[in-house]
Specification:
The structure is a homodimer of 210-residue chains.
Chain A (H helix, E strand, L loop, with lengths): L8 H19 L4 E2 L1 H8 L3 H9 L5 E2 L3 E3 H12 L5 E6 L3 H9 L7 E8 L8 E2 L2 E5 L3 H8 L3 E4 L6 H10 L4 E4 L11 E4 L2 H14 L3
Parallel strand pairs in A: 4-5, 4-8, 5-7, 8-9, 9-10
Antiparallel strand pairs in A: 1-3, 2-3, 6-7
Helix pairs in contact in A: 1-4, 2-3
Chain lengths: 210, 210
């Protein structure tokens, strides 16, 4: 697949959205779509759609548009979703349970291998077929199974130290729900920050005319 | 407070992060901080910090830096966190429960008034002092209590229709966890999209040299 050497993160972050819309189009039986129609669905401009997708190869044909199934498969490949890479969860409170029970890691390119917690009340339990292990055994597990990423759903206070330990254990990526910035330069960190998001909504409402 | 008329969303989205770091500085008893030191904590440049904060007023003093407590209070005011505005949750599955039980809405400028679900098994229950009401009573509740925002933690399929109904009921903002794009132009939508985020991490790992 031809790909521009440097693709901006803004474009990369739109790829999963393109894929979502193509999945929906596929579900309703659409086999092709124009850049104009795809742009309208996604509230982008047709030119932006073409520019975004051109970063990764030639998918469209003038006068025809995009083949939905081909573009969908191509974007999944570009994102690396057929991996699968392996993930572990650190922190089996409510959010850890919710992710284990309800979130499809496999659809996002990962298989979930284990969960860890420090609380004796949850250690040893099994949540959605995932065994909860003692955080004390983290190093041993990492050395045996070499997970690619860790999902951090533990409290903010211990998060930086755990992140550091994970990186020392070869973790390449951290999906960080802890509402704290992790200054780990040796791993890729993707943050989901509930409070930052809701505060932003608060600001937008305050400054809007609604 | 003097404020530039148009502040870019990229700057707005950094405000909660500034506030978080100032909260931490306050906790450890720091009373002032230079733009250079604040920038280092946040992995920004000193010039970016000064530019960002200058969008909202004059907070720093050359040779002194920023007064932590004053800047912290000012950013909280700018974000509108002392509101409080009112919120409701739609969808009391695992994620709805997790947010009710573990997330501090008040710290983000909101008070949570009620939760709604269609499942008779949860309707009538009380989660973290929040009563779960029947989704059938949504219009009646909105007309009596006029909530400002709705948190959508329901499945993707019914989300667009519910969002539309909420907007017709005067909802100004939607905090959207449903992994679907809501084309509601009459409300401000802030998305938290787990799958998009994890797919982005997948891409970044695939294309990195880690």
């Amino acid at each position: 697949m031809e790909q521009k050497s440097i693709v901006s993160m803004a474009v990369v972050r739109r790829l999963p959205r393109y894929l979502r819309h193509l999945d929906e189009l596929h579900k309703i039986g659409a086999d092709k779509i124009s850049s104009t129609a795809l742009a309208a669905r996604m509230e982008l401009t047709a030119s932006q759609v073409r520019q975004d997708l051109n970063c990764f190869g030639c998918f469209g044909q003038q006068g025809y548009g995009y083949n939905v199934e081909f573009l969908r498969q191509s974007l999944a490949d570009i994102l690396g979703l057929s991996g699968p890479r392996s993930a572990i969860i650190i922190g089996m409170g409510n959010l850890g349970h919710t992710l284990c029970n309800n979130f499809s890691f496999s659809r996002c390119g990962f298989s979930l291998g284990a969960a860890f917690d420090a609380n004796p009340a949850v250690i040893g339990s099994v949540v959605a077929k995932i065994r909860v292990l003692d955080i004390k055994d983290l190093d041993k597990y990492c050395s045996a199974h070499k997970p690619d990423i860790a999902v951090l759903t533990l409290p903010a206070a211990p998060a930086p130290a755990i992140a550091h330990r994970l990186v020392q254990n070869g973790i390449k990526g951290i999906w960080n729900f802890t509402n704290t910035d992790l200054n780990e330069t040796r791993a890729l960190v993707e943050n989901i920050n509930f409070a930052d998001s809701l505060m932003t909504l608060c600001y937008r409402i305050k400054t809007s005319n609604l």
